[in-house]
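Q: Can someone sanity-check these two? First one:
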Amino acid sequence: MPGRTFIPCILLLALAASVRCGEPESLRAKACALMLAGHESEAVEAYRAAAEQGDTNAEIALGYAWLDGEGVPADPETARHWFARAAEKGSARGQYALGYLFDRTGEYELARRYYRLAAEQGHIPALCNLGVLLENGDGGPADIPEAVRLYQAAVDQGDELAALNLARLYDSGAEGFERDSAAAAHYYRISARRNHPDGQYAFGNACCHGDGVEQDYAEARRWFRYAAAAGRPEAMLALGILYRDGKGVDQDYAAARRWFREAGEAGEGAGFTSLGILDYNGTDREADFTAAARNFRRGAELGDPRAMLYLAECCRDGDGVERDCAKAVEWFLRAGDEKEADAYQSLGRLYFDGDGVERDCEAALRCFERGAELGDAASMTMAGYIHDNACGVERNRKLGFEWYSRGAEAGDSTAIFNLGIMYENGEYVEKNLAEALRRYRQSARKKNIHALCRLGQLYLNGSGVPADPRLALRCFSEAAALGSGEAAYELYRLCGEEGAFSAGPRLARRWLVRAADAENPAAQLELGRLLKEEKSPEAESRFAAVWNHKGAAAPLLSAACLELAGGYLAAGDIEKAGRLIEEAAARVPPETLYELYRVFRRKYPETARPALEAAAARKHQPAVRELERLRKQ
């Protein structure tokens, strides 16, 4: 918002004391001395005496005293009386003061009238404030060209605030007024050189980002220092960022921390947030989650939305504080209320996953929709996923497609990939493999792992494209470099003895280990079997990783279960065997339960019996018959 100018009462008093003394002038000089000495009531009486003798400056000073409650109770009507007496004499300062009173009370039409009278006499604050009213459309139609003319007239007389207002106007590109970053930088520079802290900070920002001027971090630092010395916390924060990133200065984390702390203590919450990020990431010293959470809390209490988000994540994950998902929800909501879109996305995922809170897909959907309203592309994608996959709501492919489309337009690679799936499978839209491929490639260019893997599969199998193992290899390699366990497992298969690029067992084994370490359940099972053949004790941990994997497919779970059972049988570990059977009853099909029974029945019949009963209860006929046979014995 453009800034208004106000000449405070004390300045008027000082001006009044500098004139040659007659009777009213002597009273004004006495009033000024009393006001400066803190004797406000006596000063007001001296001003009243001078004003009653017709002294214009005393009338204005007395008006400000009544307006601001200095030495008398605040009374705008009495202030208006004294300002009007001065204005009626044609005093520009009186006209400005009356305009200022109406500006404060929201009577903008009258404010315009008196500001204009003072502005026609060249009164600088009146020029500036009338420009503000015209820019905002307060008290009448907005008139940007006239506002610009008035600001320029004030600038020409040396006013730094009018220069700042002009700069902001050019910077924002008001309606019907094209943005001009070079003009904005020009006026920011004028305001800065005239020692306005806001202008100094804004011109430093322009230099830092090369917005309207050549990018120059050293020059940015110079102006940030001036603004910081004048108490601008945003400038302190900016200096901290320059020192942290080594831009325009040698990288110096100690200096960065000092400036971030000064910014925070001056009221800029992002200063503490920046300190917390350094602590959390261990950027310049050992990571300290406790210190990070403490700084995030201080930033959050000062109203910084990112601090609220990070504090919520600390509460959710138990980083630096005791894990408290109720507190996490509270801070996510507070951050969301401050328009932090990521907060709604994170809260939505908390409800969607049921992580520390009761799973609630409807609540998750509401959070994702609110995040989407704030422009968060990932929230749009998750809203689409819930509708597309009937997660706690009735399946609605149409809504799923629409949300994916919005997410894709906003640049989310997962939304683009999901549209590809819909086109490939003909879900809601007509099947169109060419469009699916276009979407997969678009998503892959954004380094989406799923898209790269899907393209790799299509090239490997020749589905909708000519088979091309080399292109498949390239896609899987790129995805594996991004951490995909699925891609690493496909590379293991391609490089194995029966693969298209047999590269020897050592290279194939490296890909298998990478895939398993990336928690790919198929790779973990395969590696476990190799380790079992090698009689390595690590085999059990690989099978257990598959068994404990939330997303493992049923056949993989069954295979891992039976492998673990064989190991427990060989080791004679009856306790682990019992726990495995108890868990398996709810996780594997009855066929696998029956196989478990057969593994243990000869050596540990009592341990095996619950597996048989669980399989029979699910109508597995061999289990039913076996249970009947045992009961007849």
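And here is the second, same format, sequence then tokens:
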Amino acid sequence: MHGRTTFFLLILSVLLGAFIAIVEWGGKDEGEQDRPNLRLLDIEPENVIYWSFSRDTLFVACANEQGQWLIHKPVEARADSIKLNHMLAVMAKLPRGEIVTAAQRASRSLSLDDYGLGKPLARMVLGDAEHRYTLAVGGLSPMKDAVYVQVDNSDAVIATSTNLLDIIPRAAADLRDPRLLAGAPAYVKGLAIKRLGGPLVEIIREGTEWIIHKPITARADWFKVSSLLEQLFNLQIQQFVAERMADPAIYGLSDDETILQVNIWKDEEKNGLKLCFGNRTNAKGDLIYTAYRGTGSVFAVQKDQVDALKAGISDLRDSRLYFMAADAVAWIRVEEGEKVLQLQKAASGLWQVTEPAQWKADARIVEDLINRLNALRIEGFLSSTNLLDLGLEPPARVIRMADAVPVLGAAMQNVAGATTPVPASQAAGIAPTGRTLIMSRPLPGKEYIYAKFEDEDQLYQLSVAAAVTLALDPIAYRDSVVLALDPTAVTKIMLRKKDVAQAVIREGTGPWVPVAPSVGPVNLAVITTLLEKMATLRAVRFERSERNDLGIYGLKDPRGSLTFILSGQEGIQKTLVLGEASEDLGVYAMVQGQEGVFILPKALADQLLQDITR
């Protein structure tokens, strides 16, 4: 009896469940029966390019242009792209809940007003390039867990998530980009800062450095400028005050009232934005008015953040001297009493020593000199104007740099832009741009010398140790390559050493053959090695002695010599002469017709004097 009762109860439960399911299924309209987990709108957020909102008297129209959301109405302004993209993500996830058709509303004696859609709370239009949706937003459901909407002016009322209400803006400011500046500091090419009553400070990025160009020429501290730009780009708008500025003076934003002007640009033409900062917005004084010059929009930003931008020369300059951009230097002249060192870059880009002698310079050593001069550390600043007492009138040393060779005795155009008179010989051209640094003499017991650029009033203290390491000896800059022959251009080699004379010759690229006084076969391995060494023969060092007696180097009656005859109509020849051993275990040598004695490694000298015939 117990088992039979249980069986009948089970059958009854199944039938009851089936009845309920049929009733509920039949109570829903056809569209609702076919929509498991449907979305309210069939949109992909990344494809949406237009979105407008209207409520009460507000109308905001936004467009996505190249990945950036912009507001076009009621103002032209940047939108907060992060915020709008988040709102789109919410829109894409809105569910299509209960659907109430017009027939169902009529059967229940309900109208659109009962769903808050007679006069909707808000309307939206959004979509991609091919389709746009219209959405009317009404009131809440009786349980407050859904909001009623209409899509594309359909008669049907749809319930969806109340998350929709959280993203409907109440003002255009809700969608505006709160950043005062768009972009990133990395793209800034230059900036200019003008404090009320202060000079204009202009800083330009040159390669990897920031250089101050106004009111003086100096290297800026990279970290300080980077920090300043970070602060500038981090400025957040606290209030959107006005879209049309009737009178700048009301906000303290007229040219003669602004407490700070900042101009930044991202191209070489200095086309950019100019920010002006004016009066405090209220008695509390924590906010300050700001605007872009040339527009009518007025904003309010934190005053303490603006105060951090009021940087002057002393706040931004680097503690190293700066002449000019290293790659622009084409001429250097150092004068110390009667001594002169002059270096000049040829049109080919190669450096030459032009005074007191003329020879090819080692580009690496010259570049090191430029970099060292451009990085002399400033140990202190002085305000004294008595150049005589500081040993600067006359100076002990004068260092000049320019981007071209100036006419001697003529002043140059300094890099800060002040042009001095150009002599008649240069009247038809452009005066070279450069700078001149004067330095005092090191004094016993003093750790510093004094220095001053001719185009500045500022005086500097420089370390004696750094200043005295700047070599004035022209030999220090001479290229170590003393001979550079093209092996294929050599047509004859003559070797002389004590009582031995050997010679070999060839026609074009033909084989080497011995010629008188040689009688034996050629030593091809020695000749090949010899030509390889002559392609780039480098000296260990140059002899600095001013004595002209070659006999003291063993070069008057040399240990040996090599003469190379080169192809060409003029029969060019080069002779390398090898003398006695030097004190540093090398061998003295010289190239006939070239100034200066140099030292070669002994092993190399011995290799060069090997027999070229057997």
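A (reply): Looked at the second one. The chain is about 20% helix and 30% strand. The radius of gyration is 43 Å.
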